Each structure stands twice: as C-alpha cells, then as structure tokens.
Amino acid sequence: MKKIPFSKFTSYGNNFVIVDEVNSPIFGETEKGRFAHFATNMYFGIGSDNFLVVQRCTRKVLDSINQVRGYWDELPDLHEADFIFRMFEPDGTEAFSCGNGLMCIANYLFRTYQLASVKIVTEIPTNHPKIIDIGTERDGQSSWANLGQPRKITQDLFKPEIAQLYDDIILTVDNLEIGFRAHDLEPFSNQTRLTLKGYIVFTGEPHMVIYPEKDGILSGFEEVFFATSEYTSTLGKPAERRVDFGIWLVDRIGLALNNTYKNMFPAGISINFARPISTPGEKGILEYRCFERGIFKETLACGTGAVAVSYISKRLNKIIPGENTILPYRCRLHEPESKIKIHENETGECRIIGFPVMLVNGEFELNHL
C-alpha cells in the first residue's frame, strides 16, 4: 500500500486535488493519468473536478515527460520557468491550462514555500508550452494568474467548417442546431430544436461563448439560464424549477455540441453562457456559467472561461474595457457574494484574480494503480 500526500483546494467551487512533486516524484509519468481517477472520484476516491501536479521545471523533468508522452520533437526551451503546471481530467487525459487551478497552485506555493510569485509552465500537451506568472498577495488572501493574451483557436482544436472571423482572434459560428425530444423544453417552450450562435477564442483552453438573450436561444430562456439571480425577474415561474431546468439545459447543450459537432471540435470545447449586467454606479459586470470539456459537465466556475467571457464581451462592446467583474452563476447559488476579477491591460493581456481556499491536507491510501 502506498500513501499519497495531497492537498485539496477550491476556487469558486471549482475544486482540485494537488500532489506536490517539486522536490521528488511521487508518481511515474504513466501513473499520473491513472491516479486522476482516484483524485476525482467522489465515491471511491478523494473527489474533485481535476487532478493537479506541480513539478520543478528542469530539463530532466521535461525529458521524463516527453519520453512517455511524446509531446515535442525536441525539448522546448523553458529555462526561465520555476515550475510546471499539470492538470489531468477524470479519464486521465492531460488538459492544457486552468485559471482556477493556477490560482490554487499559486496559493499552495505561497503557503508551502512562501513564494509570492513564480513563473510556471502551462499548456504542456501542446507544441509550444507557455510560461506565465502566477502569485498570491502578501496577506495570503487573493491569488492571481496572468493568462496572457487570448489567441485564435488552432486548427488541431477546431475545424472551421462554418466559422467566420469576427476579428483576428475571435471566430463566430452560426446555425449550430440541437434537437430535443417532444416535451423536453416544456413548459418553457414547445419547440424541439434550438439554433445557436457562438463566439470562439483560446484562453489556455478552447472556449465558446453564447449570449442567451440574443444569439438564437428562444425568447425568455435567459430567465432559465440565470434563474434566481438577483438580476433576473421571476416572471411568475417557480424559481426552483427554473434552476433545475437550467442545470439540465446547460449540460444538454454542452454535451450535444461536443458530440454532434465532434468533427468540428475534435478535442472538445467548453461552452459558456453569459450576459452583461447593468447596475447603478458599476459597469463592466458579467454573469456566466460554464460547461467544461474534459469533465463534460457544468462546473461551479471556470477561470479560463471567465477570461473568454470577459475578452469577447469587450470586443462585442457589451462591457467597458479595463478591469471587470465576473459573477459565476452556479457558484453564487451556494456562495452569493462570489466574484471573479479580470483585468485586461492595454496590450490585451488578461489577469484573473480570485480567492482560492485550501480545504484539507491528507494522505490517500493507494492499493494499486
């Protein structure tokens, strides 16, 4: 029996199991993906959205990754980085990046090694891994991750069969059709088909942003996607029913887009539903919810999704430039005061700022991998 030391963190309900390999490896490279099952399984494991590993960035570590994974023809030059960020999905596949996960790692490094800021490698399973800055304020409260400039999605992640360029970075996709059984959408609608429009960008992960109030979802469905929000009227419908239906509908649309259009999104795509909020005295507020690829369900929040929503909304003139507030709808059903800050500088680089929380340190008794 092997005892695996771990820490569990949450950032806006997006929760992670972290294993520290900074000083020495705990798993072999092939074992990391297999342990993801135990890290994420809430019934027969620890329970989390994703499994994170933090490693020292050395040529030896990079070589050990590449010998097994074969990600690169030659080792990338990452000598300026201090650490490597690894994230594994429940099925063991390795993801690219994660805003909430990076903030949790920043907080972990601050707590464990008293490091206020570090350079860390993300997007390991790509041809060109990226070095970014992450950190935690000296009071140990808020953490941040500099995710850099959003980018145009690459052709290995998106086959643009029906896409159009909105600008140099953002792509638009019209006429995405999703079918439903008779009565599926009742009592909110008697239709059996939705036609959607999405805006696509890469923020470390591939994201599509849909605006329910205008982009093809039926009139009145905004009240379903954001039911019980302080910014939503009730329309006389029971709030609990709208919440439950909205949860079902987000997962139904997310799964349908990832399955029906798998030829278009071969690695999957995260689907965000967003709307701008107008309040007296404060501008630049967005409310959103996100169905995540890899997990293939809605999570309580998504950091790279929040950046995608912020970035696209500014280009569509839905909110003002600069720093804005993102309200994670699903998280706020449990923690009503939750807010994510996204700061975009004059060069388009985006920094996510939030409040990750350490939940527990422990040991997992592993019988086999």
UniProtKB/TrEMBL annotation:
Q: Name one GO molecular function term.
A: diaminopimelate epimerase activity
Per UniProt, which keywords does this protein have?
A: Isomerase
What's a GO biological-process term for it?
lysine biosynthetic process via diaminopimelate
The UniProt record lists the keyword Isomerase = yes
One GO CC annotation: cytosol
Q: What family is this?
A: Belongs to the diaminopimelate epimerase family.
| Name the UniProt record assigns to this protein | Diaminopimelate epimerase
- Its source organism is Desulfobacter postgatei 2ac9
